[in-house]
Amino acid sequence: MKINKINLVHFRNYLKLNLSLGPQMNIFVGDNAQGKTNILEAITILALTKSHRVGTSPNIIMFSKNKCRIGGTVQKDKILTKLDVEITEDTKKLSVNHTNIKKVADYLSHLTIIVFTPDDLEIIKGSPSERRNLLNIQLCQLSREYVKVYNEYNRLLKTRNEYLKILFQNSIADTNYLDIITDKLIEKAIFIYQKRKEYLDFINLHINEYFQKITNDDGIRVCYLPNVIFDDYEYETIRKKLKHTFKKNYMKELNYGMTIYGPHRDDFVFEYRGNDLKYYGSQGQQKVAILSFKLSEIPIFQEITGTLPVLLLDDIFSELDIKKRNQLLRFIQIDGIQSIITTTDLRNIQKKYINQANVYVVKDGNIERR
Questions:
Q1: For the domain with range 139-305, which CATH number is right: 1.20.1050.90, 3.40.50.620, 3.60.15.10, 2.40.70.10?
Q2: Is 68 helix (H, G, I), strand (E, B) or coil?
Q3: pLDDT tens digits for 177-205?
Q4: What are the extents of the domains in the chain?
């Protein structure tokens, strides 16, 4: 999968931009606050319909303008697809090949990406919601069914929480409706548990190999931590355990007024030789563990979608020493993969890679091909 062209109108500090990208490595170089990361953000929105950065639509739209547009041409095999996202303060319009798309689930997967940023350290150091968000973003790119089931689960979860509050406030004894909602919720939860477990198992096939090649060290893995413990992840095992858990903890959930068990409370941890890397690893080890996780996603995307994702690397080289930087560059030179890199200094990147790349100089929202 490749991005051939990017078109921006009134996006961040870009009044208007029409940019062609190379099929392999693309390097955007410039000082901070010139607009390099804005290019990666635009591509992220084009792929996922939302930014990987903190900020709402009004922040994305250029000052004094009332809307912005992000367009792009994506090539998969020999097929070209035109994607467009138009954002106002209140709305977001999606289109594929000039046809309006109403549901995000029908838009996702036309462009698949893997993003590296310096803020990714929060995946290890941050709250469980950071790690759940990572899983959901990647699984939504890989499976339209996951998007559909995940959204249905959240709707049922909201309904169940509201009814638990009604039961508590009104002392209603009839729980038949709650049982119906719970059974439906369990059906959706089983699918989510299985997909997340499958994804993390796949990560574990590769993560230690990448970690070892970058650091000459080993012993890294990820461990799935749902807040309900299952003997295995077969359908019937999960169903029975969830039904038992909800029945056993009915009064507890009633008092809390919310559903306290299920995949919305999931977590996973990075382990280094059996210890939680959050507490027993250096910041350097944590950074490389996250890089290894992201690199492990490449073969997953290739196996499931039949194509390689686009790699977005935002100022990642400043976070690594020279040896680790060179190792990472070697990995992203996979045949057929397109990478888009931002850096403040080309000295961060070996000359042999620069000679093979498209290099763009970014200054005050203007981009020139070197």
A1: 1.20.1050.90
A2: strand
A3: 999 999 999 999 999 999 999 999 999 99
A4: 1-112+307-370, 139-305
